[in-house]
Design goal:
The chain is of the alpha/beta class. The chain contains 15 helices and 14 strands. The two termini are 43 Å apart.
Length: 462
């Protein structure tokens, strides 16, 4: 775990510690500390370097971060400060309005000279104290612009329902044609090992063995060499795809790859295991799924994922259209639920450290609406809620301090469950982790024995 960001000012450290003391959740506390430091750094230098004004800058930073995170529901169950300065901060818009009214009165009373002096005073205050703006703080305005820009670039939501039936129309030497217009190139596909996996009932029942039928879909990005998507770079685009296909085929990494032009390649037969998900956890209404290589199909976009980027920057329109058709075919063919169509970043875990976010591709920005899928970023994260996983500062840093909402939803539900059971949250989390380790031990033993184990109670088949 990396060291926390050092607090640059003694006054800032004391103010942050005062407010952070009321925040019980460690992740929320860390998020508040980081945001307060960022807001303080955004204050004008004159405000931070002048000894008489520095306390104002410190309080503006702490209260601004606290208010912002509260508005975004990232400080659950945290009481509001009781200091008088917090009350004044909350009344800042009213105070600013009274100040402007006083300035206007001054200008009216003293004529042109008074007007010039008053205007200079207003401009100085606006420059030094941007957080007193009656509209929004500098940080909030920047965040709003970023969100608006991402939303403007997002592909439109799907307007048609996924087809109930999709069937194979043609199967030639180079590829397949499906009834929904899907074309699949098959010249690179290989066979690996046949799919066999356990599902773990959420009601605590015995694990169930499943063969052949995939339970869901995991979406990935290749994180490979990416050339500009421009006509002059066509040669590089094609060369990169060919190299990527050879590497993925050699390692059996995904069931499907969608290249930058929207061409779909089958790499591993759907009946076989692809090695795409590693240590991972997901759940639907009935079951928990562990180590999703065996149970979920892997679809990879040839792309490079970056935090805060819009999905339109990550993939091309052709890739989104291809992903929609491929998802429709797989869901119709195997009865895969919307719930079990999920990005890689939400399922990847580190079991040794009991941390989420081991891989974070598509941990933001996945085009759910364009594919006709529900937003999985809002789903309480099963690894936290079901097995007591957590997260650290390193993940916050890699995600630029912006985790998806399902993390907070799961943490909140875990605290509610702890209160209902009358046990400390830490004790409940420890017990959930024991359950996870028992499941992992069962899986490892079953793999060694070819899944011929007394723990198997039923077969769901295909």
């Amino acid at each position: 775990m990396s060291k926390p960001t050092p607090l640059p000012e003694r006054q800032l450290r004391k103010a942050i510690e005062s407010l952070a003391a009321s925040i019980e959740d460690p992740g929320s506390k860390l998020r508040f500390i980081q945001r307060a430091i960022e807001v303080y750094a955004e204050q004008p230098e004159l405000l931070r370097k002048t000894s008489t004004l520095k306390p104002i800058a410190v309080r503006l930073a702490c209260y601004g971060a606290f208010e912002e995170l509260h508005a975004e529901r990232k400080l659950p169950s945290t009481p509001k400060p009781r200091e008088i300065s917090w009350t004044l901060y909350r009344l800042r818009h009213t105070i600013l309005a009274l100040f402007i009214l006083g300035v206007a009165s001054l200008a009216y009373a003293y004529g042109p000279a008074g007007y010039r002096a008053a205007r200079h005073g207003v401009e100085t205050v606006a420059r030094l104290l941007p957080s007193f703006s009656p509209t929004a703080s500098t940080a909030n305005r920047a965040a709003s612009r970023d969100r608006s820009a991402r939303q403007a670039n997002e592909p439109p939501a799907r307007v048609t329902k996924p087809p109930e039936k999709v069937w194979l129309v043609e199967d030639g030497p180079l590829g397949e044609l499906w009834s929904n217009g899907l074309r699949v190139l098959t010249s690179y596909h290989i066979s690996t090992e046949k799919r066999r996996y356990f599902v773990f009932p959420r009601d605590g029942g015995d694990p169930i063995l499943v063969t052949e039928k995939p339970a869901g879909i995991v979406y990935h990005t290749s994180e490979s060499d990416i050339a500009p998507f421009e006509p002059d770079a066509t040669g590089s685009l094609l060369s990169n795809t060919r190299g990527l296909l050879r590497w993925l085929r050699q390692h059996g990494s995904y069931h499907y790859l969608i290249d930058r032009f929207g061409r779909i390649y089958r790499l591993v037969n759907e009946s076989d295991v692809a090695y795409h998900a590693g240590k991972s956890i997901w759940a639907d209404d009935d079951y928990y799924y562990l180590d999703l290589n065996d149970s979920f199909l892997g679809i990879c976009f040839e792309s490079e994922w970056k935090p805060q980027a819009s999905d339109a920057e990550i993939v091309t329109p052709a890739q989104i259209q291809a992903a929609m058709n491929l998802t429709d075919m797989l869901r119709a063919r195997y009865g895969i639920s919307d719930t079990n169509s999920v990005p890689h970043g939400l399922i990847s875990v580190n079991p040794q450290k009991m941390l989420i976010g081991h891989h974070i591709d598509w941990a933001q920005g996945f085009p759910f609406a364009a594919l006709g899928l529900s937003d999985k970023y809002e789903v309480p994260l099963p690894s936290i809620l079901g097995f007591g996983f957590s997260y650290d500062q390193d993940l916050l840093k890699r995600m630029r301090g912006n985790l998806w909402p399902g993390v907070d939803h799961a943490e909140r539900e875990l605290r509610i469950r702890s209160r209902n059971k009358g046990v400390p949250s830490a004790m409940l989390r420890t017990e959930l982790r024991r359950v996870y380790r028992r499941h992992q031990e069962l899986l490892e033993n079953a793999r060694k024995n070819g899944f011929e184990t007394p723990a198997v109670t039923a077969g769901m088949g295909s």
